[in-house]
Amino acid sequence: MKTAACAAFLAAATGGAMTSAASAQNAEQCAVQADLVMEVVQSRGEGRSAAETVEAVQSNLEGPRAEYASVVPAIADWVYTLPEDQLGPSVGESWTEACKAR
Fold first, then answer.
1. pLDDT digits (tens, 9 = 90+) for 39-90
2. End-to-end CA distance of the chain, in Å?
3. Structure pTM?
4. Buried (b) or exposed (e) across 35-48, using 16+ Cβ within 10 A?
């Protein structure tokens, strides 16, 4: 449920409304978002604080990915609420599913 809410927030923050012609673009955006989620998961797993993670992930955003800089803090807030035993590839996978469902 938190994944869907966070994905909805991210969709709204990045311009959200989608037409059927944009489904391929949506899949690409969902993949980028899931990659960001997994970068945050990896950073947390390496022992960084949420603030350090936000700074590290944002500093590595280039090109089209840079448009997601403003939502990295929300992603980090969400990831840092997850129990450690849930931090794995399934986090990115569930993000992708929730993102594509919107």
1. 999 999 999 999 999 999 999 999 989 999 999 999 999 999 999 999 999 9
2. 13
3. 0.76
4. ebbbbbbebbeeeb
